[in-house]
């Protein structure tokens, strides 16, 4: 028995001394190397270009990406693109700003007070169920067919995701933090500034990423309604003349602006929520 136990002890010592097998390095959950998010879109563009070069796609059906890029450069050089781009950006970001501010205020009111919850949450949920396109005829009767109507509809479209996500984040704040605030005797304003707003930031940034994309997708349809300027107007006019290269230019502009807006929000989010990485490290 002693011999058997000594052999087991020696085997255990040998196993402990033996270096542990090296595991392949793994990425942290949710994180990808910089630039890999563009691999999918780039692959689609490459396949698209190849299909056009080999004659699988007719230029009358869909212009090649290289043709669209050349057309876009030509339109910038002759000054026919930038005024339309500025008009679209003005509409989109005006509606985005108003929608984000209103959504955040409504979420704070509904998430921090019972009266606000009772009065506001049902109204926003009703708006959530009504498509923005369904409101166009009514809003035209109210505001006409000018710029105000377009900005207002973008505003209503953006407001909903900002409210929903920020409100959910406020309602999901850890009760331990709430009890600690009561124990420390924080005032209402101090509680909002030190507990509620930091706790709602993750949900708010999720909503902001949705909003910066939604303001552009809403604008595409709205610029088809009695508009003489904007990327959507260019695309609609190009459709009438069968100019698929200009249509693709418009699609590229919307895609690039959406990606850039999302990237800016990501940078702001990383800086504003840097405390989460320091806690997790």
From TrEMBL:
<feature type="transmembrane region" description="Helical">
    <location>
        <begin position="246"/>
        <end position="268"/>
    </location>
</feature>
<feature type="transmembrane region" description="Helical">
    <location>
        <begin position="204"/>
        <end position="225"/>
    </location>
</feature>
<dbReference type="InterPro" id="IPR035906">
    <property type="entry name" value="MetI-like_sf"/>
</dbReference>
<keyword id="KW-0813">Transport</keyword>
<keyword id="KW-0812">Transmembrane</keyword>
<keyword id="KW-0472">Membrane</keyword>
<keyword id="KW-1133">Transmembrane helix</keyword>
<dbReference type="InterPro" id="IPR000515">
    <property type="entry name" value="MetI-like"/>
</dbReference>
<feature type="transmembrane region" description="Helical">
    <location>
        <begin position="92"/>
        <end position="112"/>
    </location>
</feature>
<protein>
    <submittedName>
        <fullName>ABC transporter permease</fullName>
    </submittedName>
</protein>
<dbReference type="Pfam" id="PF00528">
    <property type="entry name" value="BPD_transp_1"/>
</dbReference>
<comment type="similarity">
    <text>Belongs to the binding-protein-dependent transport system permease family.</text>
</comment>
<keyword id="KW-1003">Cell membrane</keyword>
<feature type="transmembrane region" description="Helical">
    <location>
        <begin position="133"/>
        <end position="164"/>
    </location>
</feature>
<feature type="domain" description="ABC transmembrane type-1">
    <location>
        <begin position="85"/>
        <end position="265"/>
    </location>
</feature>
């Amino acid at each position: 028995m002693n011999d058997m136990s000594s052999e087991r002890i020696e085997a255990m010592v040998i196993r402990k001394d033996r270096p542990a097998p090296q595991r392949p390095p793994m990425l942290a959950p949710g994180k990808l190397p910089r630039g890999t998010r563009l691999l999918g879109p780039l692959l689609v563009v490459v396949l698209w270009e190849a299909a056009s070069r080999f004659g699988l796609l007719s230029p009358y059906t869909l212009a090649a990406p290289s043709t669209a890029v050349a057309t876009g450069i030509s339109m910038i050089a002759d000054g026919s693109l930038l005024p339309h781009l500025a008009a679209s950006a003005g509409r989109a970001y005006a509606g985005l700003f108003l929608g984000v501010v209103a959504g955040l205020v409504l979420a704070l009111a509904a998430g921090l007070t019972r009266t606000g919850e009772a009065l506001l949450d049902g109204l926003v949920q009703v708006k959530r169920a009504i498509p923005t396109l369904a409101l166009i005829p009514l809003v035209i009767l109210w505001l006409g067919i000018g710029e105000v109507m377009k900005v207002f509809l973008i505003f209503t479209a953006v407001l909903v995701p900002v409210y929903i996500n920020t409100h959910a984040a406020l309602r999901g704040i850890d009760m331990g933090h709430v009890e600690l605030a009561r124990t420390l005797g924080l005032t209402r304003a101090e509680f909002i500034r030190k507990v509620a707003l930091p706790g709602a930031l993750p949900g708010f940034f999720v909503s902001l990423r949705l909003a910066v994309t939604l303001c552009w997708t809403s604008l595409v349809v709205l610029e088809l309604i009695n508009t003489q300027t904007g990327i959507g107007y260019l695309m609609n006019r190009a459709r009438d003349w069968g100019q698929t290269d200009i249509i693709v230019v418009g699609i590229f502009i919307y895609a690039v602006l959406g990606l850039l807006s999302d990237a800016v929000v990501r940078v702001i989010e990383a800086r504003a929520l840097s405390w989460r990485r320091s806690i997790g490290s």
